[in-house]
Amino acid sequence: MKQLEVQIMGQSYLLGCPENGDARMLDAVNRVDMAMCKIRDAGKIKARDRIAVLAALNLAFELPERTATAPQAAAAPQSTGNTQNAPQIDTQLNTQLQALLQRLDAALGTDGQLL
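RE: above sequence
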């Protein structure tokens, strides 16, 4: 596993990245950075951890919409009748959502409130 140094909302992070996963990781970093900066720039919330939680919730909320409108490349196996990858994709999405929920729980800590 390689490491990438990235910036999110002006702060540097060193992230583990699977081999050949650079482009996907950088895309994810870009989406998180844009979401967090948008919330910060709205000016109502200043705490970085709260901004991160709200950005994570927004991205998780948009996830089903993004997968439903995936590029035609993702739809190609369905058009040929090949649905072998569908359970794998569902499992991956479930794993990602579970990891996100754990991160949200950790960020909220004992407070349990977003605002």
